[in-house]
Design goal:
By secondary structure, the chain is of the alpha/beta class. The protein is built from seven helices and eight strands; from the N terminus they run E-E-E-H-E-H-H-E-H-E-H-E-H-E-H. The protein is 39% helix and 24% strand. An eight-stranded mixed β-sheet has the order 1-2-4-3-5-6-7-8, with helices on both faces.
Length: 229
């Protein structure tokens, strides 16, 4: 089981086991029960996991999704990226990790692209149903789809065809951007009929979402282990 640690002025959830790591960037749930379970699972696979807390102690464990969505719309890209960069530094400098990747879900998937483009130390980028619409909302200062071109690490992106937050045409654009890179392999998972956020267990009452995650997660685990080994 992991613990809460202080990294500068922010708290993060840490499940520590060894000298390779993954930075976890949660979805709208914040560091809720499921994100902590994923961190613990990664630790069980020999990967130190550190999870960013986007909502400063608030999560679906104690707060409504509606309230968290309101907080998301107030999120500042530069502040969030600075916090995530500090967590990367912590993994490398304080925990002594030799390789570190980044995985994100929904809003975290978008930040995984932005962070991976800015920090060449990142060993991989994993993005589950990233929220990267071409019609950017006001709080999206940066175009994560365009910036993904600057990622030099291997990328795995998982996309559901029924994603109402990111149209299929935007996903096609994202694939074109990633596959045009001169460095860094691109792995794509595509799930017909699955919804945005299909990883979230609250959506697993719909069989197509549960099936998508059941297939996607073991492949993502294998990818992470191969790229931080």
């Amino acid at each position: 089981m992991g613990v809460t640690v202080a990294v500068g002025e922010q708290d993060a959830y840490l499940a520590r086991v060894g000298r390779v790591g993954m930075l976890l960037l949660p979805m709208i749930t914040g560091i809720g029960e499921q994100v902590r379970a994923w961190a613990d699972e990664l630790a069980g696979e020999g990967i130190t996991a550190l999870a960013w807390d986007p909502f400063k102690g608030l999560s679906t464990d104690n707060t409504s999704r509606q309230e968290l969505s309101g907080l998301l719309r107030q999120m500042d890209d530069d502040t969030a990226l600075a916090e995530q960069s500090a967590l990367l530094d912590y993994l490398f400098d304080e925990l002594g990790c030799s390789k570190v990747g980044v995985i994100g879900w929904c809003l975290g998937g978008r930040f995984a692209f932005l962070l991976g483009a800015r920090d060449q130390r990142v060993a991989n980028v994993v993005a589950f149903h990233p929220t990267v619409p071409s019609d950017r909302p006001p709080h999206h200062k940066y175009d994560a789809m365009a910036e993904a071109a600057g990622i030099t690490a291997p990328v795995l992106v998982s996309y559901p065809s029924a994603d109402t937050a990111v149209p299929n045409s935007d996903f096609e654009t994202l694939q074109t951007v990633l596959q045009a890179r001169t460095a860094g392999a691109t792995f794509t998972q595509y799930f017909p009929g699955a919804d945005h956020g299909f990883s979230d267990k609250s959506r697993h009452d719909k069989e197509v979402n549960a099936d998508a995650f059941r297939l996607a997660w073991p492949q993502a685990l294998a990818f992470m282990k191969a790229t931080v080994a």
